[in-house]
Each structure stands twice: as structure tokens, then as C-alpha cells.
Amino acid sequence: xxxxxxxxxxxxxxxxxxxxxxxxxxxxxxxxxxxxxxxxxxxxxxxxxxxxxxxxxxxxxxxxxxxxxxxxxxxxxxxxxxxxxxxxxxxxxxxxxxxxxxxxxxxxxxxxxxxxxxxxxxxxxxxxxxxxxxxxxxxxxxxxxxxxxxxxxxxxxxxxxxxxxxxxxxxxxxxxxxxxxxxxxxxxxxxxxxxxxxxxxxxxxxxxxxxxxxxxxxxxxxxxxxxxxxxxxxxxxxxxxxxxxxxxxxxxxxxxxxxxxxxxxxxxxxxxxxxxxxxxxxxxxxxxxxxxxxxxxxxxxxxxxx
Length: 306
Description:
Elements lengths: L3 H17 L4 H6 E2 L1 H6 L5 E5 L2 E2 L2 E2 L1 H6 L6 E2 L22 H10 L7 E5 L5 H12 L5 E4 L2 H7 L28 H6 L5 E4 L3 H5 L12 E2 L15 H10 L8 E4 L5 H10 L6 E2 L3 H5 L22
């Protein structure tokens, strides 16, 4: 049994750990708290600022104030390819363009890359996903983004900061993707999640509904009012109730692979791998023959055994 002194000492250690935001397991492999980044930053750290404003990539806010040493990432020019009539609005970047960006940011294969934004982690998640898909082994999102950093008393600087070139080459295929034909067939044998808000799923947003038999799973429900990722137990319970059981084949989509990339990230913190549909509804809707369904989400169906 603990003595009073031992109990107080243990409680103090727990409090200090909580304040620093220490994590473990898969969560720590993909997420970092503001306290940890401030007090005990990873070695070979590269910080990427992926802020987006009303008019698109927000380089002006970056120049005004950013984390010390951060490099600016243009979510459109750096993390997407050129859109065509059939590609959807945000196709994957080509290897050459992505390699040039990775080296410009000063990333090496053994770098720890931390990405952040001030937009509910959506642009940061796009950067996280693209870099992990490109083969980088250690990419994390700053939990709570710029707001959490400010609340933790983290320093901010202005202006642009030069970075020594990196050496890494993009090697796509680090994360699974799914194409349009496979998305259409997936609900018969697995789980297809729609990461958008429920009203968009119902057909009240940019697109007139959702892909047939998809399940509404708004990814913003995975975060609290401060933009911090919810606890592991809550997340596991939620996705189990959505039908995402061990061994299930699953994929996620949104309008243009932004919110869906965030959902891939959330599930990665649970040790669950799920495919991304890069084209999203912006690609699905290119062909008027592909149906969109309005209305509420159907209940998750039992997944047939493999």
C-alpha cells in the first residue's frame, strides 16, 4: 500500500506528466502536445506551418507570427497536383514536385516533422497524410494547433526563416489509397466512412448527398471544443459503434481529401489503418452516372467474414 508521501509524490509526477502532455503508443507516434513540443522537442525537428485563411494558403499570417524555425507549406501548391476534369479538386502531388518541397523544407529521412495550423487540424492533417504517404516515417500533428501552443506559453516569431536543404526523396505508397471503382464496391464487403459534417452528408452542402451505403462519421466529433483530440477510449468506442471492427476493410472520403485525411490520422492514433479516397466527392461527382444519396446515414451493417 502507498504511504501518504508516496501517494503525494506519485500524484505530483502524474500532474507534471499531464501538464507536459506526455503520450504513449500509437498516439505518441502521430500526435504531440504543445507542452511536450515546448519543453522536450524531438531531435532533428522540422516544423511545418500549414495555415489556410479565407482566401487560401495564409502566408501573411505566417510571416506575422509562427513557431520558431517553422517553414510555410502551401496546401494547394505543395500538397496537391494539378486538377483535371476527372481528377477531383485536389489530386495527389507528383513525386518530383513533392520531393522538391520536402527538400526545400529541410527534411531528412531521420527528421521528426511536426505540422500545425489554426483550422481544426484539417490542413495539418493533409500535410501529415501526404508526408506519410510519401514514405516519411515520423510525422506528427501538434494537438490543438497554434491555439494550444499560445495557451502553453510557446514562443512565436515573425518573418521568414531560411532552412538548409533536406535530402529526402518522396516514395509514394506509404499509406493506402482507394480508387473510385473500389469505393463504389466497398460497402458490400467493408466500411465506407464519410468524414464531412452531417448536414453535408444529408445533401445540404456543396454536394447533393453522399456515396451510396456510406456511413456518416463527422471527423470533427473526434475533437473537443479546444480542438484537442479526444481520449483513446472515447474514440475506440465511437468507431466500433460505426462498424469499424478489427480486421474490417475500410476507407474514408470527404469533398477533396482534407477532412478524410484527418480521419485517417485519428484512426492511426488508435493503431487502425484505413484507406483514403484521394479524389473524394469532387471526383465521384465528375461522372453524372455515379449516384449521390440524400438523407440520414444507415445503421452500420455486419461485415461478412473474409
